[in-house]
Every structure is written in structure tokens, then in C-alpha cells.
Amino acid sequence: MNGFDFQEQQRKEVNTFSPDLSSFMTRVFGYMGLAVLVSAVTAIMAGVVFKTAYMSFLATHSWFSFLLIILEFALVFGTSFSVNRGLAKSLLLLFSFALVNGLMLSTIFMAYTTANIFSSFIAAAVIFGGMSIYGMITHRDLSKIGTQATFALFGVIVVTIINMFLKSSMVTYIFSYIIIAIFIILTAWDVQRMRQIYENYGNQYDINGLAVQGSLQLYLDFINIFLYVLEIFGFSNNRD
Fold first, then answer.
1. Cα angle 131-136-142, degrees, rounded to a multiple of 5
2. Which of 26, 50, 72, 229 has the fewest Cβ atoms nearer than 10 Å?
């Protein structure tokens, strides 16, 4: 394919975006961005502004951490099946999950410097943004590599659980890169899937509920990229 043909193909790919599809994907990323904002504000309030009070509460009420974990799973499950519940209920579930996850994330301020957290957030945003654009414009079918990445993630989780007992910092460091690579693939695949679901089945679902469901998946992709980039930055600083 010569340069002219390649440019022409790129123009065709960009021109396949209908106004309705663009509006739908804008909603997906908009809801996802608001969810990240809710988590960020909650984490800062609990881990910085009210750090002493919140950490003291956690120390004296150990059950609360387990409650947060249970709530996270329940809210993820609820949001995942909120397609036809209407916009208000779907957003309530999404933002409730983001708030609970923000409380969980607040403890990163105890383990990492503010500079590391900020740098990791920017790096994660750049990575996520780049792969989202790729997933949106590519005509390459990412389902096969996305499925492989999902199975690889399960394998990494098993090794990570084992490493909780071995407590090898080097294993944690190496697997941070692997997990980031997995979520980079999953980000592109999830964006492509949301586009395909809308194009093929959008008329069968409530569009707002579908957008919220997609935003949850992208939120999870972004948060995982952020956390493991933070793990790498923190490990590198500890070695200096």
C-alpha cells in the first residue's frame, strides 16, 4: 500500500464515525471521567485532608475495610447489569462505586509520595488516552488479542496471590509491567467493543445505561494502569 492509499484508508476510517456514535462515545468517556474525578476527590479528602481522622477510624474499625471490599464487588455487579435501569439509577451505582473505590485508594497517600502519585496519574492518562484513540479508529479486530489478554490477567492474578505469601518485591515489580501491558490491550479492546456494541445492538438497549456500563469498564482499565504505573515509580524511587 503506497502513501496515498494509506492516507485515503485513514480518512475512510475517520469518516465512518456517525454523529450518533460520536455522541455515544462522548457519553462513555464523560461518565468515566466523572467517575475518576469522584474517586480522586474522595481519595484526597480521606487520605490527605482528613487523613488523621480517617486512618484512626480504619485502625479502630477493621471491619470497615472488609465492608468496602464487599461494597465494591456489589456495586460493580450492580452497575454491570444496569443497562436498562435508566440513567439516574445507573449513574448512582457508578458514582457510588467510584466513591467507595476512592476510599480504598486513599491509602496510597501513605505508601507513595505526592510526586509519584501525580506523575503516575499523568502517565496513566496518556497511556489510556492513546490506546482509547487506537481502539476507536482501528479496523483491526482486537477480539482475539483481547481474549488472550483476559486469560493472561487471570494467570497473573494467581501468581500475585501466591506472591502475597512469598513477598518478593522483584516479582511484584516485574508483574507490574506485565499487568500494565495487559490493561493497555484491554483498554483498546474495550473501546472497540463499546463501539461495536453500539453499532450492532444500540437500538436494543437504553443508550444511557449502555454508556454507563462502558464507562465502568474503562474506569477499571484506567485505575489498574494508574496503580501499576504507581507501583513501578514507587519501586524505582525506593531503589535510588
1. 75
2. 26
Start-to-end CA span in the chain (Å)? 48
Contact 210, 83 (CB under 8 A): yes
Stated pTM of the model = 0.87
Q: Contact at 8 Å (CB) between 47 and 109?
A: yes
Q: What are phi and psi of 29, to 5 degrees?
A: -70, -30
Residues 6+ apart with CB under 8 A from 12: none
Q: Are 101 and 79 in contact (CB under 8 A)?
A: no
CA atoms of 207 and 83, how far apart (whole Å): 8
Question: Residue 238: what are its φ and ψ, rounded to 5°?
Answer: -70, -25
Tens-binned pLDDT, residue by residue, of the chain (240 aa): 444 444 444 444 444 567 788 889 999 999 999 999 999 999 999 999 999 999 999 999 989 999 999 999 999 888 877 666 778 888 999 999 999 999 999 999 988 999 999 999 999 999 999 999 999 999 899 999 999 999 998 888 888 888 778 777 888 888 899 999 999 999 999 999 999 888 887 677 778 888 998 999 999 999 999 999 999 998 766 554
* Grid cell listed for 7: 492516507
Which residues, in sequence order, are CB contacts of 149 under 8 Å at separation 6+? 182, 185, 186, 189
Q: Is the dihedral of CA 168, 100, 183, 34 positive or negative?
A: negative
